[in-house]
């Protein structure tokens, strides 16, 4: 047998002891962990834990495994939202298929869960918008998915919004850029698959009343089209409008979840022509900033939220001290005095239901809500206590991320 | 259903490389056309241009008499069949086939009619009310085909559909696809790199090399009357043997002794210093096992056998030979292009399974000189190709096809909506049948 894995190699090495020579279906259940709320898969997929981390193992032909391994590796380097690949095992005995190993996307949810929640109706819109963002981002990067579906996408909460990740790259083709035909075809496939998946939920009585599978599926192409247009269209305007029009456009793209790589402005007597080149990677400005100040690794919207709280805290420190406080000092202090105490209020049995940064975001929301009711600021500590007592317990237990369950036992 | 005509199709990428170079090809209504060739030959690019995934640099793509160069994939009403597919666990087999129609809001009775007809053709009728969980591998693939059928597309397109299946399912699916195509009589374009798949499935096979068509013909014509060295070497397994030869009188002088040519072939090859003679493995035999009556139709020679390979029903002997550099260089290029292992200068000859010829010994062989072809080693052209004989073979294949389609239709095995060319088809578009 042959193993190929990407650094850090310690994770790969820790998995070497598993019975790779056996078909996945025959692995001892003791070695596996159960992950609830999965989508539909054509292949045998199993989950294992090692050193507190969870990995997904998928049995597929060697050719596909190598293809997917290379693609997912490239996606990660480019910052495209996809699951992270660890490695592959090939040349297994008796001509068995290869196994592709990916890192489990912690705190992720499948569409099956999202649609079976009580608040599903509100999230349908959000979900389709998120899927459109993912597809536009991939298409900008020259990625023809060939199998865009809800089953092949995972969702994570990001400060109340959803972020979508590509999970399955078996059918992906990489091109320098996509033709219009390729984009439309990919979108047609996505529309059809989303429709079929929702119809399936409806047949299984898992779709809330009032959600029409066909209507939802049909809403994907227009969402995609308007987003694609927003992101790629060329604008022409009068020279005197230049300054605010450029700023407006960049702001609009940021709001849609895209970073701008390069702006090209060509002026002539008729006016100015603006072309923006959108970065394909997920935006990361706030994420990097927060990481620099606190060492916390969170998603972009969460980072924006946390940074706002950190800045407010710094202003408070400065006011109290009557002197400037450095960013670094404020960051360190905020982490130990504000952030960590909130996370520490989560009782052990509720840990893992939401990502810690998402809990912090929800506590801030909850604080706003309580403060409005009380007519005064109730403070973060009181809000956190109330939140873990009254709100967090209603999050379903099956949402608990597998690595937390693993580390518990 | 529709014919597909390609007129001087060119696909040039940004770097100027022509992936498809001036391809003209007519695919008849109801025909099963295979596009085959080694990787990089342009077969997939051509298929993508039919579907609408690749822009066409120049030339005309005409489907059902209509130029579609500028149409979006879904407006071409073609069906890419099961490159990957998903079965939805809560839906019955019926709904798993019907959902593309549900999504296009087709009325219930029309859905019922089409699904029933498709399930008859696919022999899935017994399973319609079941959940898909317990279907066999082959039945699952048929559900995916059912989705393609109910759309009533103008044509079915397959892009290496079997490359990820295991050998057993691959064989099974090859049969299914071929049977289904006959029953439906639907125009089908099928891309593969596997010459065995090409030979067993197609009415006609289009062999491509570096973006250019080499030959379009029935499998038998390709096999018996190849147009050049490339086609001759690509089609057939084990491959055709190529030996160096020079013309002396009315015979070719070869490492396996003189091979007599008839007048037509002598005239065709005269005037060249060095030639290459192509002999298929089965044109050889252990001389001791050849009928008296057959003997004079060929020549005999003695050679030392390097290796024999006994397969129960057949046997192969490997005979090394000497060749000048001009020939070995040409053969090296050919094998590189065909992604084959380095061709050693040895012939693979088929001998009867009962033959006692053994490795390391010298033995007498017979070769059927009637069927050898002679190639120009410089250009690769087949100098002795009999175009008329080839055309007759392809004509025969066409007659067989018409007869088979008629038979399938008379025995009531077809789907009625398919025959009328877009009637009620609507804008179902070019979809792959299924999801993952």
From TrEMBL, chain A:
It holds the Pfam family DUF4032. SUPFAM superfamilies: Protein kinase-like (PK-like). Keywords: Kinase, Transferase. Residues 226-392 form the DUF4032 domain. One of its GO terms (molecular function) is kinase activity. It comes from the Bacteria. The keyword Kinase applies. The keyword Transferase applies. This is Lipopolysaccharide kinase (Kdo/WaaP) family protein. It comes from Geodermatophilus obscurus.
TrEMBL record, chain B:
It comes from the Bacteria. GO terms for cellular component: ATP-binding cassette (ABC) transporter complex, substrate-binding subunit-containing. One of its GO terms (molecular function) is ABC-type transporter activity. Residues 404-436 are annotated as: Disordered. Residues 4-235 form the ABC transporter domain. This is Carbohydrate ABC transporter ATP-binding protein, CUT1 family (TC 3.A.1.1.-). Residues 418-428 have a biased composition (Gly residues). InterPro entries: AAA+_ATPase, ABC_transporter-like_ATP-bd, ABC_transporter-like_CS, ABC_transpr_MalK-like, ABC_transpr_MalK/UgpC-like, Mo/tungstate-bd_C_term_dom, NA-bd_OB-fold, OB_MalK-like. One of its GO terms (biological process) is carbohydrate transport. Keywords: ATP-binding, Cell membrane, Membrane, Nucleotide-binding, Translocase, Transport. SMART domains: AAA. Signal peptide: none annotated.
């Amino acid at each position: 047998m042959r193993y190929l894995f990407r650094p850090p190699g310690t994770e790969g090495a820790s998995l070497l002891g598993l019975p790779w020579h056996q078909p996945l279906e025959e692995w001892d259940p003791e070695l596996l962990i159960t992950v609830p709320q999965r989508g539909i898969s054509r292949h045998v997929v199993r989950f294992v834990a090692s050193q507190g981390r969870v990995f997904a193992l998928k049995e597929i032909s060697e050719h596909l495994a190598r293809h997917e391994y290379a693609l997912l590796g490239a996606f990660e380097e480019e910052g495209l939202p996809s699951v992270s690949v660890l490695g592959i095992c090939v040349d297994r005995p008796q001509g068995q298929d290869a196994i592709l190993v990916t890192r489990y996307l912690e705190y992720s949810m499948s569409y099956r869960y999202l649609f079976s929640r009580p608040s599903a109706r509100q999230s349908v819109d959000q979900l389709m918008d998120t899927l459109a963002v993912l597809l536009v981002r991939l298409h900008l990067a020259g990625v023809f998915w060939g199998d865009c579906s809800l089953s092949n996408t995972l969702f994570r909460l990001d400060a109340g919004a959803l972020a979508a990740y590509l999970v399955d790259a078996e059918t992906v083709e990489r091109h320098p850029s996509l033709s219009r035909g390729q984009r439309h075809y990919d979108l047609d496939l996505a529309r059809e698959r989303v429709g079929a998946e929702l119809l399936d939920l409806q047949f299984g009585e898992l779709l809330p009343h009032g959600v029409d599978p066909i209507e939802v599926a049909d809403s994907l192409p227009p969402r995609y089209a308007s987003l694609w247009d927003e992101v790629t269209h060329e604008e022409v305007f009068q020279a005197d409008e230049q300054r605010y029009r450029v700023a407006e456009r960049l702001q609009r793209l940021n709001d849609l979840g895209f970073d701008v790589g390069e702006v090209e402005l060509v002026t002539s007597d008729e006016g100015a022509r603006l072309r923006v080149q959108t970065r394909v990677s997920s935006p990361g400005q706030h994420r990097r900033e927060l990481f620099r100040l606190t060492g916390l690794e969170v998603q972009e919207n969460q980072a924006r939220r946390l940074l706002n709280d950190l800045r407010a805290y710094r202003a408070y420190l400065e006011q109290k001290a009557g002197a400037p406080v450095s960013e670094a000092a404020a960051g360190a202090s905020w982490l130990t005095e504000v952030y960590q105490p909130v996370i520490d209020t989560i009782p052990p049995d509720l840990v893992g239901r939401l990502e810690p940064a998402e809990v912090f975001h929800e506590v801030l929301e909850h604080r706003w809500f309580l403060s409005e009711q009380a007519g005064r600021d109730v403070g973060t500590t009181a809000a956190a206590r109330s939140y873990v007592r009254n709100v967090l317990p209603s999050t379903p237990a099956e949402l608990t991320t597998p690595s937390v369950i693993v580390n518990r036992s | 259903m529709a014919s597909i005509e390609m007129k001087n199709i060119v696909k040039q990428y940004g770097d100027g490389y022509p992936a498809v170079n001036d391809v003209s090809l007519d695919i008849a209504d109801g025909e099963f056309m295979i596009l085959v060739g080694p990787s990089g030959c342009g077969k997939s690019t051509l298929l993508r241009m039919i579907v609408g995934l690749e822009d066409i640099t120049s030339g005309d793509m005409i489907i059902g008499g209509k130029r579609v160069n500028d149409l979006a994939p879904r407006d071409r009403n073609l069906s890419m069949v099961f490159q990957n597919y998903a079965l939805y666990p809560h839906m019955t087999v019926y709904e798993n086939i019907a959902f593309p129609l549900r999504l296009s809001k087709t009325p219930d009775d029309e859905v019922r009619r089409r699904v029933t007809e498709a399930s008859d053709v696919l022999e899935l009728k017994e399973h319609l009310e079941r959940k898909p969980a317990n279907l066999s591998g082959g039945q699952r693939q048929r559900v995916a085909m059912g989705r393609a059928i109910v759309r009533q597309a103008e044509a079915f397109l397959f892009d290496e559909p079997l490359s990820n299946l295991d050998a057993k399912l691959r064989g099974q699916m090859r049969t299914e696809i071929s049977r289904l195509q006959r029953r439906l009589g639907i125009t089908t374009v099928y891309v593969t790199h596997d010459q065995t798949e090409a030979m067993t499935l197609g009415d006609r096979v289009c062999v491509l090399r570096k973006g250019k068509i080499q030959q379009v013909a029935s499998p038998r014509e390709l096999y018996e009357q190849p147009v050049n060295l490339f086609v001759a070497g690509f089609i057939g397994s084990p491959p055709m043997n190529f030996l160096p030869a020079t013309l002396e009188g009315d015979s070719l002088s070869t490492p396996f002794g003189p091979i007599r040519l008839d007048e037509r072939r002598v005239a065709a090859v005269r005037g060249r210093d060095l030639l290459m003679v192509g002999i298929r493995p089965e044109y050889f035999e252990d001389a001791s096992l050849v009928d008296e009556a057959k003997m004079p139709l060929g020549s005999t020679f003695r050679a030392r056998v390097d290796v024999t390979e006994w397969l129960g029903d057949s046997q192969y002997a490997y005979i090394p030979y000497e060749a000048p550099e001009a020939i070995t260089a040409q053969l090296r290029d050919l094998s590189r292009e065909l992604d084959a292992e380095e061709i050693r200068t040895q012939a693979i000859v088929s001998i009867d399974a009962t033959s006692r010829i053994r490795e390391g010994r010298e033995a007498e062989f017979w070769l059927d000189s009637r069927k050898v072809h002679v190639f120009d080693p410089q250009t690769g052209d087949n100098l002795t190709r009999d175009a008329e004989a080839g055309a007759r073979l392809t004509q025969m294949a066409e007659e067989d096809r018409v007869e088979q389609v008629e038979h399938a239709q008379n025995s009531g095995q077809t789907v009625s909506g398919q025959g009328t060319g877009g009637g009620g088809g609507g804008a179902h578009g070019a979809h792959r049948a299924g999801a993952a």
